[in-house]
Batch of 4 targets.
Target 1
Amino acid sequence: MDVATFVAGVLTLAIFSFLYRDNPVYKMAESLLIGISIGYVLVITWTNSLMALLFNPLFNDGRLWLLVPFALGLLMFGRFHRSTVNFSRIPIAVLIGSGAGVAIPAMLNERTLKQMSATVGPLTTESGFPDISVIVVILGVLCTISYFYFSREHRGVLGKSARVGTWFLMIFFGTTFGYTVMSRMSTFIGRVEFLLSDFLKLTN
Amino acid sequence: MRLEARHYTFIGLAVTVVAAMLVGFQPDVTPSPDTLRMYEYIDSLPEGSIVMLSFDHEASSLPEIRPLAVALLRHIYSKNLRPVGVALLAEGTGVGYGLMRQVAREYDKKYGEDYVYLGFRPQYIAAILSMGESVPATFPEDYLGRPYTELPMLVGVNTYDDVAGVISVADGSFTNHWIEYGHGRYGVRVSAFVTAAMVTTYDPYLASGQLHAMVGGLRGAAEYEKLIGIGGSGARGMLAQTCSHLYVILLIIIGNVVYFRSRRKGGGV
């Protein structure tokens, strides 16, 4: 057994020990995870981001226009002192302004307009039979939206529609929760498979 | 050592999963239409096509992501497609490279000619948009520090127009960004291999056609393994997953029976 597999196996068991109760072995494994993750992200950010995109092109290739983002980045550190905190608002304003400018049209188009357009489809199939899927989708959208309409009391048609809307919401929450449980089980199964095959050599 | 009810629950789950893994029986799975669509899409790509794989996940989801990614890479390499790996999350960077290299060895593929890993770029939206304008400008060097222009496989690969599609291997919302910016702005075909927890998030995009195809969770991995005819972790984990789900259902039934019996008696739970 190589060292990496041994360390991974021991740390997996250390994390599982939390299921009994909080303990020093678990805390050590948790601290290792946090420390290594942060260290890894810092190294990757330094090499793949700051060196590759800023320092190398600026100082080795002489791309002087990169001084602008470099200066904006430095201004961010103004937040650390009361007298310079106002300087940090400049790069934040640039980030928010450009970010909103890029994100709003894209999200409006992809998340709202295209999804709305996909909601409405032909109610019948090519052979003339009602398309149950489309009918359910339209019914679900209208009823769920009516549940979130708070300008009128939920009585009469609106009340019934809102009630059906809650059923659709419950089905969605249930499905999502079921998939999440499935996902967590898969993670657990993956670790058990590692422990049984690579660490303990009980299976192939 | 004092054991509480939750400890028995955990022990029961552990015994169920370990026993299922030790049995070694692999139940047959029937590929879903979504998985079949992804398989047919990859299968239909001409030999030598460039496919961009985006490893948009953290290391913590590796047990679920790994079977998915390995099955996908096996299909890609067996079809002689050429994958280009990128990562929008720093944590997925090393994992993505490790997976591509590991599966490439099975198929005797050479780095630089048959596959390339470009690595991580920060600010995912900027990275996706930037690659739409110029991939070499976004990644002047690959993950190993080799200049982009010196990688034979990437000659002529400048924008999304030069790749057959993007496949996001994700455990979170990053596939959304590929849909919104990659597909929405540049029209690149986006597909996804995602953890089961994300399936309901992306189902509406699949239905609307914004997402071309999607494979989800360990079950999706098992289905894909069946389609490519190579068993893996997905298929091996299916019996354990089925048994663990039955165990959870059993617990829910027991919990409800106990609740209703105690309510009938007028006591608390």
Note: Chain B touches chain A through 59 residues (CB under 8 Å).
Target 2
Amino acid sequence: MTSAEGAEEAEDARYAPEEIRAAVAAMPPDEMRRVELIVRYFAHRSGLNADDLRQEAFLRVLGSRSCRVGTTMVEFLAGTIQSIASEPLRSRREAKKAGKSPVTLLGDGDPAGLSVLPADGPSPEEAALAAVFHARQLERALAAVGDDYELQLLVEGLFDGKRGSELEELLETDTKGLAAVKKKLSRRLQARFPQGAPL
Amino acid sequence: MNDKDKLAALDGLVLADILAMTADELRQAIADDEVEVFRRALEAAEAVAGKQRLAQAKADLAAYRTGAKVVPMPSRGAGSGLSALRRRDPELDRKLTMAARNGKRDVEADAAGVDEDLAELEEWSKDGEDP
């Protein structure tokens, strides 16, 4: 095996399911708090309440999802939560119409039939719906900015793809000042839907 | 940048903030009893995930049993090819017996292989092929 192949293999190494279960169960309380905040932030977008989104994320992490070695459990759960929140909304609605739940109900005796979301990519119709969905979500998020000029500038810079020193320049501030404005925006966005809200 | 990417940019900012929060900030944001709710939900999910794994294992086993192709092994008893050959050919039988007595265990160890070869020969004969 060449060193490049070895590096590639190391990069692709995954935790065993037992390792994931043990690591998730051993998460310290403050890490649980981080995950809870992430759940609450994404809940409104997923169309699920925070309890359901959290539960679905747990089930995927403890069940089917694989995790690259070196990833922390908070990062792993964050990625899973984001993934659920970005799944096609239409699929969930159709599942609901069909009488299926988009999440696994605890203790409902249906241990195998969880996946109600299609494995295929979105159809053109779904893509169009997703565009409307994203526009609406963005509008809601930007409402958190309000008429705060500093935040408006930061958002504008972010949407222009600016980073670090470019943002500092735009906001006419230093690293510490930029961090403070970012934190302000983050907290505003998180406070927008503190417990998640159905769409 | 489209709306999806713009949302992703905001998400990235929020995630970075949450991951960088201090212990004090985290404890202020999420109370102890809410951590307990989180922990209980995790335990409940682990129980469900365990049931799912068990159900999956059972389903896999059932599928394996249904789809498994059972190939019967030729019997090594009196009716097997090698035994029949030995009965028909006393000279061969004597040589094999002598070989076994002299510690040539390979003969016995190869008996199954000989049986297989004989079975294959038989198949060829049935198909009219020339081995």
Note: Helices of chain B lie at 3-20, 23-29, 32-67, 81-88, 90-101, 106-109, 111-127.
Target 3
Amino acid sequence: MIRAHVLISGDALSLARGAEETRLAIEAELSYLGLDKEVQVSYMGHVDRTDALPMVIVFPEGTRYGAVRPEDGAYIVQEHLYKGRIAQHLLAPPETLSGQIAHLPGRAGAIEAQKRVVLRRAGIIDPTSIDEYIAHDGYFALGKALTEMQPSEVLKTVKDSKLQGRGGAGFPTGLKWSFVVNQPGTKYIVCNADESEPGTFKDRLILEGDPHAVLEGMALAGYAVGAHEGWIYVRGEYGQARERLEYAIKQAEDYGLLGDHIMESGFDFHIHVHAGAGAYVCGEETALLESLEGKRGTPRIRPPYPTVRGFRDQPTVVNNVETLANVPAIILNGADWFRSIGTQASPGTKVYTMLGDVNITGLIEVPMGITLREVIEIYGGGMRGGKAFKCAQTGGASGSIIPAEFLDVPMDFSSMAAKGAALGSGALLVCDEDTDVVDLAYVLVRFFKTESCGKCVPCRVGTVQMLEALGRLQRGYARAADLRRLEEIAGYVQETSFCGLGQAAAVPILTGLRFFRDEFEARVRH
Amino acid sequence: MDKDLTQTVQRVLMRHGSNREALVEILHELNAELGYLSQATLALVAEALKLPSSQVLSVASFYSMLDLEPRGTHVIKFCQDAPCHVAGGREVWEALEHELGIGFGATTPDGRWTLLTTSCIGACAVGPVMLVDEDIYGNLTPERVRQILKQVAERDQAGGAA
């Protein structure tokens, strides 16, 4: 008889901080006290509390301890599980939350859950257990689709939900799927898990925390468009995410929830995992497809788009991890429910990784349309050291550098685009008044220079020239003509590069100059 | 031809089948098993997949996680992207160069350390970060870098490793 569950955060960061030793210490103490038959210990995925990892949650109370060092493990067992009292001094620090978001009641020390769509199970269930996923509505959406809905109804629901791609571009997901439906040939669903934007690690945490949600989303996409094979392209650096996925696929196949004749419906869907080997450009969908075919990851010319000629030259849907993780909830709860969250033009939530000069960094899921000011104040706990906000960098390296005048702009795809900035892939690098914008631009452009695939001249040569000019500016050697030249080259690079990587490489310079021109000019030697 | 090498390549190819689409994964696994991809390794893969060796080299040279030359006993990969940079990455990088006495891309003369940079590894919440072989170290400071290098060296001595 199990009376209590102990969950230990088992994400890469927690493991790096000694979660495995903590787990061993807890198990050893349980066994010493003879509690090992009544207390179950398992890993959970990420918890959005990087300040308190490794975290240990004890159910049924939901008490959260963190950060728990290996030497604290035995004490928690003795106090909480043996004597039945909370180990007060090891509790995770409390979290503050916005009034506009639903709270779940919790006991002392429990963090209140945010109103989540994508991360509703992450950190709650053991990601290595398909049973726990199923117990939290997992595979219900797939069951509903296969038994009660025609493929066209699944497609219509996703279209009506107005779900937009969460990889950065915000393209309507339902529309993308509909391009594939009527194409002749063998269709494929490809999940883009090549998350490599600096500062973005939301997809890793989704894959590590709730891998079945992505698998279920892919199967639903396959049913909607008539595909029977799915591929997950996961970046080479995400070894743990890959292992979790492979294990989850095997579990789902054993349960008849993936593979042939799913739930005896006659629908077949197989999923394979393919690991990259270190190349940022493979996040670009056509470069990803090249890499998936075992080639150099250089982008293809478009059109034809992947929806017409993608993987193996067949019609292919390429969706981001977070996009696919939204799909099961949409099918289960309906398009109207999804549209009730977020804004009219961009419904739903967005998952961000918040970093930089704020008090609390880490993973958050917020409704679309929340402002940057709210995110910093509510989720980030304000600016660190009470310093003033200077700028934020959105969406990894290809996002914009945005100044304080953006603090009250709703964060959704269209509102940001209307102001000439990009929402990007889900990173929020918050910078305070001490930040050197020229230095920041230098580091961002250096990233693109390193990652340029070399296929086209504007990106291959332009990134080198931009970096040289920025370097001269940084060291105080640049003349006014150099600054003009920098701006000119950035314009060419943006306009003439072959793919999104090159086009994005100029963005840090162009947005930096637009909002902080005086700082660039102050570095010019007269 | 080295018999062990031939067997290793055959074993990895068996797992994937002689399938061109698996080339990146085949090379990745061989890199992990052999430490790097020698010309002889690439030639064996090309032969087995019936590909021109130029194509195999072209793929092997494209991806940053594939090495075409031997590395030191320990490979340090330091993240140099913006989130780590604003968290004090420059000082940490300088400390690494100073402690090891080598620059980017180099291996120490005794063959113990190779110093590389990497693009974002998705551990930005604890930046600056570096990888020492497979292990992630976060919240780095110059002082902590010195401690970590010392710890790794001590572990080697205790384990009798080179």
Note: Chain B has a mean pLDDT of 91.
Target 4
Amino acid sequence: MSPFTARPGRITTADTLPLACSWLILAVVIVLLAFVLYMTFVPSLPTEPGFTLRHWSNVASSRLLTKVIPNTAIIGFGTVFVGAFFALPMAWLLNRTTLPLRATFTTMIGITPVIPGFILAMGWIMLLDERIGLLNNVAATFLGLSSIPLGVKDSPWGIAWVLGLILTPPIFFLVAGPLCRIDPSLEEAASVVGMRQLTTLRRVTLPLVWPGILGGLIYVFMTAVSIFEIPALLGAASGKVPVLASEIFYSVRPGGPLTATFAYGAAGVYGTLLAAPSLVALYFYLRVLERTERYQVITGKGYRPRETDLGGWRWIGVGFVVLYLALAVGLPLLVLVWASLMPVLQMPSREALLKLSFTNYDNLLEGLGGIRVIWNTVVLVLSVSLFVSFFSFMVSWVVVRTRAQSRKLIDMLVMVPHAIPSLAFAFALAMLGILASRWLPWLPLSGTIGIIAVAHVINRMPYGTRVMNSALAQVHRELEECAQVCGTKTPTIMRRIILPLIKPSTIYLAVWTAMLSFQEVTMALFLSGPHNHVLSVSIWVLWEGGSLGTAAAGAVAMVATTGVLMFGILSVAGGPTAGLVGRAVAAPALSKEP
Amino acid sequence: MAGLRKIRVSGSPIVLCRIVVVSLLFMFLPLQFVLSPGAQRAFPGEVLAAAAETPTKGKQLLDELVRKAMQEGELVATMSSSWSKTLVRPLGDAFKKRFGLDIKVTLANVESSQHFAMAIAETQAGAPPTYDAVQGTDSETMQLHGAGGTQRIENWEALLAEINPLVRSGKVRPEEITQGPLRGHSFMFMANVKQLIYNTKLISEKDLPRTHTELGTPKYKGKFSQPPWTTHWDIGLAVFEKPDRNEWVDVVRRAGKNGGAVLYESPGVQRVILGEFAFVLAQDRYMRQIFAKDPKAPIASRFFDDYNGLTGFYHSVRTRARHPAAGTLFALWMTTPEAQAIWQPSDLQAVPYGESKIDREFRLSIEKSKARVIGWLDNEKTLELLRWSGTEEGRKYLEAVARAIRGE
């Protein structure tokens, strides 16, 4: 029986493989989630007996209610606001207008996530700080003041600004897809009835892509509240702007040598607290998807999106995109290059210019850990990319293409890892690794590339399935039904018909996942052992150990490599870069089955 | 005497000469020197006999250890996260060459404050350790030791004397390398002393705080950064006659609220150079590192008048290590000038008992400044405090200190 003629709730033979693969990956998710929760009720390690609520009572404090949660909320919503402010207009400008240089702009937006967060934070401190900020100094000189009390430090709004710039690309790409697929006849109809362009945009276009926008905003909210390193550099680590992510950090990375033990349960408690708002957001997101019938004018073929000619306004559009790129890409890249050329990082000055040299690039490969670290990184990036693409495809197949009763549950479960901070997952995996090395010594888990790969795959599955759900939803079932009639089996249909049709989405997902794995530090650092150091960890260790110049040189090499690879892969694999990144492959949030 | 029997068996002319020298000393040394009441020194004859015996015994033990290490075939050890990865190969090669080992050596940069928590979890879970030998500060090592995570090295005295020429020659006493509760378990190979590093363009030396308590005064509001770890504060209790722990936490909290940021020492120093903060609570190593890269960097350092903590770094062999013999050889070898000559030129951290230029300058700078430098293994009071910090009550106290640093 084909999946298309099956009655709802029935599982066919053809569904077995995707279902088995889906539950395999979800089993890992469920085990980790259960482990995180379980640890909140045991006194220390899970191997020791006992039950306690102490971890919950320990974290309950007035400070949590009056500072930590409000700060986290401000940062979450503030980031969403800043991200939406840049991403939504850019998504429209670069996908629905005749703006020049769209391909280049889109690819540059795609490179943003590779720039290490701590470099971006340092860049913003150098730019906007009451004491040393370049902008502050220029403004103070211009206004005749001694200083301008404006900065990004020690303020949740400042943190939200920096995070918003970093997290603009996910919103951009999540919205770009639906924007590209809006049936132009609707906008033309609006035009016929006399609506002006702006009104059409507000009354027709935006409501049509609302699920995509909501998906993007929720994704970014969930990401923003769980990021640690940037809030830490800008005030969270000082206790001035405590957030849930910094609280979890200090519970799993002790404050000092004399407290060299984990607060085992606290990590889970904070993880659960962080997950709560994200799960609420996820609930609303799924509610919106339930009503997607309203938006089913969005289809995948049979038209070419209408592009608005901006006329003279296009230069304002270009200016807006350039402004974003300057703030989010140009500035950090400049700081990165500057830091890599300085013996010791100093503010730009005539004296500092005389100190510029390429010394930090000497023996760079060896300083980063040599070929082994490069090899580890390649293995990690490729394996994560491959597994995320494969499992996302399988999960999405079950969700979009089958009538399995559990498909909604599967779709929800696969999103949950995004609600749990990556550090909590890494902690749970590390503990499981320790226990496995005792009880299952034959299982190579602790200290391997495999354990980092598992963490990354679980962490990227929510995004991967959003991309795949949408891509599969675009492919009409008639094609599969034809193959089915000819007696073709499901794996062959997947391989020979579906995958070629969704190739752009798959490539985009693989490249995007690879990039995120390439630059991810938190989980890789926490799970690192003697044999599994990767490039991002090496750069972090160098920076933390006082070799900022070498770390910056490594980061420059990393960004350059990624940029070239991204251009190369996308160009070779699927034609124009912009077409791949910005349109056909843009990751929409619509997962409703057709 | 067993030692003499061994000497006879060896039949070496050098050994026979030593017997003659020992006999002459017996004859001519004043008796009261030898028998002075309360003297901790060993009988000189015994000293020399032991000196004659130790190399033989040490050599035998070392040979046995090397044989076991060869059988184990591998060593997995940590090195400081601040050390360059370019040191991995020369350190590994020199280590193997020194003992004639043909084994696989893996050295990994590890941030000890993170790894020790993991190591304690491994010990508590009864899991085999990730690393055979680990490096960490005295207080971290004490925590691991308290959890049963370090392994005592049998016959460490003889082995250390055999491996480390400074100990063998008597220039360095074994207690300078391992002592107190860590004696025989952990071996110091480097140290740093805490101090203030300041931007000379932003603050003058005379305007710097003199004591830790002054960090809480409004004059320094937002002007400094300090690390999240407690090492700048915890040893403070040992310098007071009658320490009031709660009062001390209040002092820390006032400083925490008054500070500009809580950052790891290295990023803190970077931001002082940038001019964002006037000074940072850091350590002497950063001064050497910064000046090595940029002699004109606008920074200088100063010790506190009340106390300055000395942090020792130790290598320990892990309980249930997969390669204990190789781990033991490595932990002991890391105390030698040979190992030091490899890592010190790039890391620039001092060895308190070492003889290099950096080591001499390190001691001289402390002497000249007359700073009060205090380490965890200095006296009974510090040792008692260290032991207490390993208790449940002590841990809770230190967690409170860690929170107070963040102004909580």
Note: Residues 154 and 240 of chain A are 6 Å apart (CA to CA).
